């Protein structure tokens, strides 16, 4: 457009905004007033992108309290670029309410913003307004000569030699965009069904049944699920919570005095999963007093040692023991400092012995047993992860009572500051996730464990689940849920191990989980083409990137000089959709490193062009 160097950012959601914000923050130091065209490509409006777009049900909430969501850096972020502070979501809402900040939003969303408290769970459409404001602020902060051009469309392909300009083909556009650098921030991916899902869909087609494969619940057509009919639901995480909301309140049901009043248009949801229980509730209090020092037993030195090994690193064998020791450190540090009356050993003596004990050893178990008299105060990660292991019930009715008791106990504990070591473990999980970005693909076990403990639903959602269970709209199937097909009867059949021998039949099956973030099964033509052309992909299908700055690696391990990628489909994915203030924010660190590398490259490229002109 102007003859200036061109940077194409593919993906206009929060990550794309984060890259623009870091370019604005670093440009004065690294770019020296040179011109630059930034082309932002996304089929959805910039800021929210697809997942956080305004055009979705107001019943769908964020999974974090307003005070735990920020798009701005602070001095807890370990990065080379400057801190550019800004308001967290609840502070921004205060500014809107007091007239200090103007936003473009309809009356209904403005009412939500004006009513938002720090510990409320905002709707996703409210978050979309915040993200749009952050995007516009980031663009406005760019120095003169750096211009953003937004393109509404889907990027289909990136081509070009390693040592030369790149071309970005956009759906519906005749000519490609020319780019000196490309940064992929495309977010979550749609996926083609695997062989098992295809078989289930084919079975459903043969018998006139309904099978809904893994998808983003907000984008799924749920009209095929008839009122009053049983629906098997496989998956008990956040996708299930969205499904539960849209099929109950979304169909006219309501809550009165804690009880659910059906509309009569709800199906009956029979839900199960591998664990058989919902994700743990979001913690409903803030940490007061001393924070655990993190990282402590699993930091940069341990990651460097693991990354430097000549052989493959096995997560369960090599990494998990260190992770468990780090989480234990966070737990017991908090127990000794905040609840010393529940300990039976001098804190310094315990910490000294804990530091040298081998992770997972009998020595460590004996130390904890002697220092912490009540088993309820000890950290048992295996019991947390699989609460129904070995649990058996004689009937489905007994299982319903037991699962309601489990959820109620989890809600009570996660809202009781007397159990504040739980919040310390949460902070430990965030710290561990930040360190693991340096190890590449750590497999699905860690990601699932983190999501289960740290990314559970808001407490009010679990209270709604209890009410729906009492009303008979939700029924629990237990752990190790499997689904079979009966060709003779033409039905799906589900069973679990918690009620031996029992099963449930239905004519509808919903896979309540997100599609796998795998380049091998993605529907993204853009990422499929990168894979086909030689980008390295891990065993689980993640795109391999340099952990230092996000450059895409080829199959020989060489970083591409002109292509970067950030997000959940890469080996540098970070935990959580958004960053809590003052928690280090590995996504911020990644954004900063990518932006600085890009600016230095573009600066040198621009200077060479100027000298040869």
Automatic annotation (TrEMBL):
InterPro entries listed in its UniProt record: FAD/NAD-bd_sf, HpyO/CreE_NAD-binding, L-asp_N-monooxygenase_NS-form
Signal peptide as annotated in the record: none
Occurrences of domain FAD-dependent urate hydroxylase HpyO/Asp monooxygenase CreE-like FAD/NAD(P)-binding (ranges): 8-188
Organism domain of life: Bacteria
Annotated coiled-coil segments of the chain: none
Protein name (Swiss-Prot/TrEMBL): FAD-dependent urate hydroxylase HpyO/Asp monooxygenase CreE-like FAD/NAD(P)-binding domain-containing protein
Source species: Streptomyces pratensis (strain ATCC 33331 / IAF-45CD)
């Amino acid at each position: 457009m102007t003859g200036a160097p061109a940077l194409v950012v593919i993906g206009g959601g929060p990550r794309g905004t984060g890259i623009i914000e870091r370019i604005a923050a670093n440009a004065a130091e690294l770019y020296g007033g040179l011109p630059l065209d930034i082309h932002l490509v996304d089929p959805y409006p910039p800021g929210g992108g697809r997942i956080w777009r305004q055009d979705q049900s107001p019943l769908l909430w964020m999974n974090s309290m307003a005070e735990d969501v920020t798009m701005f850096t602070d001095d807890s972020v370990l990065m080379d670029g400057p801190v550019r502070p800004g308001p967290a979501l609840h502070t921004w809402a205060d500014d809107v309410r007091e007239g200090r900040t103007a936003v473009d939003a309809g009356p209904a969303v403005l009412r939500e913003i004006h009513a938002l408290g720090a510990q409320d769970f905002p709707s996703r459409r409210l978050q979309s307004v915040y993200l749009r404001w952050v995007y516009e602020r980031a663009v406005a902060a760019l120095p003169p000569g750096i211009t953003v051009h937004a393109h509404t469309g889907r990027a289909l392909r990136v081509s070009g030699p390693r040592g030369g300009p790149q071309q970005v083909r956009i759906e519906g556009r005749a000519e490609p965009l020319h780019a000196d650098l490309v940064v992929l921030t495309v977010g979550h991916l749609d996926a083609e069904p695997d062989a098992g899902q295809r078989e289930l869909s084919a079975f459903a087609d043969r018998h006139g049944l309904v099978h809904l494969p893994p998808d983003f619940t907000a984008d799924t057509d749920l009209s095929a699920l008839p009122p009053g009919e049983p629906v098997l639901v496989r998956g008990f995480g956040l996708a299930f919570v969205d499904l539960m909301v849209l099929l109950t309140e979304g169909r006219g049901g309501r809550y009165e005095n804690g009880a659910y009043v059906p509309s009569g248009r709800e199906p009956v949801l029979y839900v199960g999963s591998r664990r058989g229980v919902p994700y743990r509730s979001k913690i409903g209090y803030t940490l007061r007093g001393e924070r655990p020092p993190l990282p402590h037993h699993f930091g940069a030195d341990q990651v460097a040692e693991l990354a430097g090994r000549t052989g493959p690193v096995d997560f369960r064998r090599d990494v998990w023991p260190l992770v468990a020791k780090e989480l234990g450190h966070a737990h017991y540090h908090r127990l000794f400092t905040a609840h010393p009356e529940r300990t039976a050993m001098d804190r310094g003596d315990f910490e000294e012995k804990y530091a040298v004990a081998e992770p997972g050893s009998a020595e460590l178990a004996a130390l904890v047993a002697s220092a912490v008299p009540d088993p309820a105060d000890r950290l048992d990660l295996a019991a947390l992860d699989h609460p129904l292991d070995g649990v058996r019930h004689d009937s489905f009715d007994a299982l319903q009572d037991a699962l309601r008791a489990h959820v109620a106990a989890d809600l009570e504990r996660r809202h009781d500051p007397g159990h504040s070591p739980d919040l310390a473990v949460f902070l430990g999980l965030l710290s561990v996730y930040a360190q693991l970005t340096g190890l590449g693909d750590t497999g699905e076990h860690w990601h699932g464990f983190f999501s289960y403990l740290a990314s559970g639903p808001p407490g009010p959602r679990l209270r709604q689940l209890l009410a729906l269970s009492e009303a008979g709209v939700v029924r629990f199937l237990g752990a190790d849920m499997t689904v079979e097909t009966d060709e003779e009867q033409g039905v799906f059949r589900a069973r679990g191990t918690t009620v031996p021998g029992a099963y449930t039949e239905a004519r509808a099956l919903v896979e309540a989980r997100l599609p796998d973030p795998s380049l091998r099964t993605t529907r993204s033509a853009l990422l499929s083409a990168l894979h086909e052309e030689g980008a390295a992909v891990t065993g689980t299908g993640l795109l391999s990137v340099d952990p230092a700055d996000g450059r895409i690696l080829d199959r020989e391990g060489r970083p591409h000089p002109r292509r970067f990628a950030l997000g959940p489909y890469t080996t540098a994915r970070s935990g959580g959709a958004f960053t809590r203030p003052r928690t280090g924010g590995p996504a911020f660190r990644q954004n900063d490193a990518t932006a600085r590398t890009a600016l230095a490259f573009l600066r040198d490229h621009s200077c060479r062009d100027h000298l040869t002109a």
